[in-house]
Design a protein that fits this description.
heterodimer, A: 326 residues, alpha+beta, Heat Shock Protein 90, 10 helices, 57% helix, B: 125 residues, alpha/beta, Rossmann fold
Amino acid sequence: MLFSMQSILEGFNLKKQANELGVSIWRSPGFLFILMGIIIISSMLAVYFVFNNPDSVEYLLLSEFTLVLVLFTVGNSIISGVDEIARANKMKTEFVSIASHQLKTPLSEINWEMELLVSKFSEGLNEKQRELIANVNNSNARMIRLVNDLLDVARIDQGRLPLVREELDIIDIIEDVIDNNKNLAKSHNVEVNIRNYGSVPKLVGDRKRIVVVLDNLLSNSIKYTKEKGSVDVAITPEKDRIVVCVKDEGVGIPKKQQKNVFHKFFRSDNAIKNQTEGTGLGLYIAKNVIVQSGGEMWFDSEENKGSTFCFSLPLKKNDKFYSVSM
Amino acid sequence: MDKKKLLIVEDEPVLNKALQDFMTAEGFEVVTAIDGEEGIRKAQSEMPDLILLDIILPKKDGYEVIREIKADEKTKNIPIILLTNLGSINDVEKALELGATTYLVKADYKLEEVTQKIKSVLGMA
């Protein structure tokens, strides 16, 4: 009870709201809402008053004119506020895109210089030095992955994530991804099984991207299996699409947080508790890749029981494949 | 077997030097250029077996370099591998249409993989 009162009062804390949105108090939604309320109440009173004085036409005209003028000004102020927020959002996306591009050059430099050191100029390096170099390489590889993810997010937000159209053999992709995650699975005591429920026709999509999507789902399933368990990758052909599901017996996602799973930068409490690495961008990118490929992505999860993440891709004959050009 | 000659056109000095050192150690003869104009000049004077070409370059960009090299009867058959940081399909497609043989994304490739790509284009793999 006290809590709900507090949250209502919070809604009227105009200064805080304005600060959070980075606009002046006069432009904060809370203030404009109150202002609209006052105007509506006074205009109703005015109409009531004018009704009681049918003779004063001038007064009616004048009050209506004033009312329209005030409403117009307030409406305009709201619209320009929205306009500004949309513009700021676009600028933020562009900034992320440019900054990521700029970061790529020095990251490539570190990458190549380290490789040069290890593969061509490693004479005299001892075990410890090699180990340190390998650590630097790992950190750099992580950084490159992160920058690539940020670039992808910026492209998605600008609606220009480029996808290739090519013929896909989904079984082949699944086997590849399982193979790539062999060591990870072993270290988490997880057994990965493929379950195929029918003959699988060819699909159309961007192979590299679909591999990343699947790798994301599978490595998540493995990483969030706490002690030991199995992960099932099921392929189910349907009439005009193929559904791929990755089912685990892991920590699951708390019910309260399930609606945020595909939001960017979201990481569930369980994810943070069990795994420090991760940016919260993987599933956001994955879902966008699948949707842009003409498919869907969804999940089902119960805390401490496990999660099942599924996606569908349209069959090849279905030409509903969205290729976004730059 | 003769040493194959590579021309590296890359304006970032560190990347240029890393490529040069690695490819020299791999047994290639290496010449370098740091802008588009120098790249075209060296392609004509050195007659390399293969060109590694960045897209974003001072003076003349990578596209212009491809155009001029492909327009010159003498140099038009030299294979060109594009070095890019963009990883955006349309930029790469544009370069491939102009006549580049293939491409690679700098941050995503190891030097070892760059070497493999060079060797496969030169038919050495």
